[in-house]
From TrEMBL:
The keyword Ligase applies. This is Mur ligase. The keyword Nucleotidyltransferase does not apply. Residues 53-175 form the Mur ligase C-terminal domain. Residues 246-336 form the Tetratrico peptide repeat group domain. It comes from the Bacteria. Gene3D superfamilies: Mur ligase, C-terminal domain, Tetratricopeptide repeat domain. It holds the Pfam family TPR_5.
Length: 365
């Protein structure tokens, strides 16, 4: 998995050494390593990776047994390596009634430390004579020991998968521990159109998780060119890599620099529709609204800027653009009220705080 799993790397090294030591041909060992996939067909419930279409891009699901402390740490190591910058890692925990309270608490502590959200799931078959509340109690204690609490609970694995997938955002990773409803979970993933990730998609995801893109070198070369040539270079790259949101984003910036405002807006729209993610998504949303403002499309710019400031409520640039575009669109008073609310609501100066309510009330009136 791109080297992000130390456990898998150690296992591969040991297996390859054993195979070579037994006299197997080197070519056969290499071929086995190249063709073996962490799929549910070849290695069920062992780091099986899927991707799920979200409203704004793709999330990742990693299905694994993770039935002890080392397993939880291993699957979360992989999840962290697959998450995109600014995204969250979720994990499901539960069942395993034959584990000691200390082990269950340790699993909870590891989840609380390494995941952003932990969800508890009842696994009836694996309670092994204990009550779910008792198992959950130990896991809650483990979470609490590192300052975390469960994000929610589910009665079984299928309901957890159905409930959690729609909550994921672009770049998020769900580490899903699968035990007593393995086949039903596979069926649910199929029904909800989750896709097994391909080696090529995994390679691309790993690069993006590291903040890299396979065309970074080409983007840098194009950025050094004159605006018209830069736009031509990016248009050629877009023809070769149609559907890559980052390429469309770079083309939009090049078109904007070349003075082709309407074309730039169109490419920003394509990049966003294709699931462009942070940190480029914010830049694209800003530049799309700025381009519309430069083109005299004031109502369009106002709408986009207002949506932007609501989504990125802590961004001074987004707030300023919303105010300016509102004034451009003939809504100067509303823009002034918006500016006052934003400034008062974010003041970090103690002497301002006693006037916050009165100023906000005045702005509202």
């Amino acid at each position: 998995i791109g080297g992000i799993s130390r456990v898998n790397t150690a296992n591969v090294l040991a297996a390859a050494a054993a195979a070579l030591g037994l006299g197997l041909p080197r070519e056969a060992v290499v071929d086995g390593l190249r063709t073996f996939l962490a799929s549910r067909e070849q290695n069920p419930a062992r780091m099986n990776i899927y991707r799920w279409r979200t409203q704004d891009g793709w999330a990742t699901v990693v299905c694994d047994l993770a039935h002890n402390e080392a397993g939880v740490e291993a699957v979360l190591e992989v999840a962290d390596g697959l998450r995109l910058p600014g995204s969250e890692v979720h994990i499901t925990l539960g069942g395993l009634g034959d584990r000691t309270g200390e082990i269950l608490e340790g699993m909870g502590a590891i989840a609380g430390r390494l995941a952003d959200r932990t969800h508890l799931v009842t696994k009836d078959h694996y309670l092994r004579g204990r009550e779910a509340d008792e198992v959950f109690g130990h896991m809650r204690q483990g979470l609490a020991s590192v300052g975390a609490v469960p994000a929610g609970t589910f009665p079984d694995e299928v309901s957890a998968m159905r409930g959690l997938l729609p909550t994921l955002r672009d770049g998020d990773v769900l580490a899903f521990t699968v035990h007593d409803m393995r086949q039903q979970v596979w069926d649910t993933l199929d029904e909800m159109s989750a896709e097994p990730i391909t080696p090529r998609q995994l390679s691309s995801l790993l690069r993006r998780a590291r903040g890299q893109h396979e065309l970074d070198g080409a983007f840098e070369e194009a950025a050094a060119q004159e605006p018209a040539q830069r736009a031509a270079t990016l248009e050629a790259l877009t023809a070769e890599h149609a559907g890559d949101p980052r390429v469309h984003f770079e083309l939009a910036r090049a078109l904007d620099a070349a003075g082709r405002t309407d074309d730039a807006i169109g490419e920003h729209e394509r990049a966003l529709d294709l699931g462009l993610r942070e940190p480029h998504r914010f830049v694209s949303l800003m530049e799309r609204a700025l381009a519309a403002r430069d083109a005299g499309q004031h109502e369009r710019a106002r709408t986009w800027a207002q949506e932007l400031s609501e989504r990125y409520e802590d961004s001074t640039a987004a707030a300023a653009l919303a105010v300016l575009s509102g004034a451009d669109a003939g809504q100067a008073e509303e823009a002034a009220v918006r500016a006052a609310r934003w400034m008062v609501g974010r003041s970090t100066t103690p002497r301002d705080w006693e006037f916050s309510e009165r100023l906000t009330g005045t702005a509202t009136d």
